[in-house]
Amino acid sequence: MSETVIVLQESSVLIGKGKSGQTPKLQETRKIPMEGYGNLIEQWDNVLINYQKSHKGEQIRLVLPAGYSSVRVSRIPYATGKQLNQMAGKVLEEGFRDGIADYGIIDVDKKDGICLCCGGAEKDAMEHIRNICKENGLQISGITVPMEGYLRLLKQKKEYQGKTAVFLFFEENSVTSVLYKKGMYHYSTRSRIFSEPGTMDFGTEIVRNISGIMQFYRGSREEDPITDVYYVGCDQDDFEAAVEELRNMNLQVAPFRLGDDFGMPEKAVEPWLLCIGGLYSLRPNR
């Protein structure tokens, strides 16, 4: 089934159309730069209003920007049905006392339990965006956050399973760092990038970020060492500023490859990773 994903960002809005499901396929993409300055929500309003002029009645999935949403990834004991809903509800209650929140199930294992990705946003902002869509004939079929897409992607990419590694997902002027231990989510953090990509200062920021994660990991006395760093959303030449120092830390460094799994073989799909993530989000918005 073909669906439309709209990714709200600080400097642009990404639009992707494609097949949703466990193995999403992108078919069309479009990037709309933000115009001028001022209130971001008002700028998103303008984009949505202009978009609906030629897409009235269309169903869309929204991906909220990382800076305007909050995320909590939790692992709970294996459960089903009513018990699962109660346990997940408790996680939401503890992590998101204010605003609107929901969760997606990333993986299920009877021994290791269930990994939940919980996302939330301010109630006023969410209601405003919903009202703008409703008033302009756009039907929201789902709302998600970038982290959910990243985790679903990592689950699908078999070549990275079993790794104890840090995955860096660059988004505009920030990076989300996800630590996996033997193929399972362990820790994540998000930080702002202040330096120009490719510069020595940029390399220093990346190395400092990875070093902090390694110190946290060693402090928890884990037996499996971090062996690899993978990155996506940053040009390979720009990331080269950090590679030598990371290798001096006994880390293997490589780009995170999406390959041809997600359609559009004629162009790189890495810049549209958030659109792919939105097509993964199967849980309906409540």
Polypeptide structure, described:
With 286 residues, the chain is α/β, with parallel strands linked by helices. Helices cover 33% and strands 33% of the residues. It contains seven helices and 13 strands. The strands form three sheets. It has a five-stranded mixed beta sheet with strand order 3-2-1-4-8, with helices on both faces. A hairpin with a 3-residue loop joins β6 and β7. α4 packs across α7 and α5 crosses α6. The longest helix has 20 residues. The radius of gyration is 19 Å and the shape is globular.
Alpha-carbon Rg, integer: 19 Å
In percent, how much strand structure appears in the residues?
25-35%
Portion of residues in helices?
25-40%
Q: How many runs of DSSP E, i.e. beta strands?
A: 13
Strand order of the main beta sheet, please? 3-2-1-4-8
Q: Structural class, please? A: alpha/beta
The major beta sheet can be summarized as:
5 strands, mixed
Query: What spatial form do the alpha-carbon principal axes imply?
Result: globular
* SSE pattern: EEEHEEHEEHEHEEEHEHEH
Beginning-to-end CA distance, first to last residue: 21 Å
List the uncertain runs.
Answer: none
Summarize the helices and strands and which ones pair or pack:
Blueprint: E1 2-8, E2 12-19, E3 25-33, H1 40-52, E4 59-63, E5 70-76, H2 81-95, E6 100-109, E7 113-121, H3 123-135, E8 139-144, H4 146-156, E9 165-171, E10 174-181, E11 184-192, H5 200-219, E12 228-232, H6 236-248, E13 252-255, H7 273-280
Helix pairs in contact: 1-3, 4-7, 5-6
